[in-house]
Write a structure and sequence with these properties.
elongated; 5-stranded antiparallel beta sheet; 3 helices; 18% helix; single chain
């Protein structure tokens, strides 16, 4: 299982620091552009019938976690993040038979923070 963890510190920074970081960054964001990408893969009848609960699948989860272990989806974390001084951004990638995969849930809304897909369609496994 792959786990990426990034510490998120919610303590306020001065606006001068934020501007300096943005000016010094070589990060090329596509947030300001109209950008979307769609990939379609047509499954053959045999591929469709092979999908069952015993097939190996991938579960990718992304959530924010606070010190007590509570997990938040992005929408809920954006609403409540002022309540916490520290949090972790966590991405997990787990490969297992479908019936053994456990989806993580947001402690606030109860929604899933996981996406389960066939390993052949997984962006991380490629």
């Amino acid at each position: 299982m792959d786990i990426d963890v990034e510490e998120v510190d919610n303590e306020e920074e001065s606006s001068d620091d934020e501007i300096r970081i943005l000016e010094d960054s070589d990060y090329d964001s596509e947030c300001n552009e109209d950008f979307s990408e769609k990939q379609v893969r047509i499954l053959k009848r045999a591929d469709v019938h092979d999908i069952d609960e015993l097939q190996k699948m991938c579960c990718i989860s992304f959530y924010y976690e606070i010190d007590n272990g509570d997990k938040f989806c992005t929408a809920c974390f954006l609403r409540v993040n002022d309540s916490f001084s520290r949090a972790r951004a966590v991405r997990t990638h787990e490969t297992e038979r479908y019936i053994l995969l456990v989806e993580d849930r947001c402690c606030e809304c109860g929604g899933s923070v996981s996406q389960i897909t066939s390993c052949s369609l997984c962006l991380i496994c490629k």
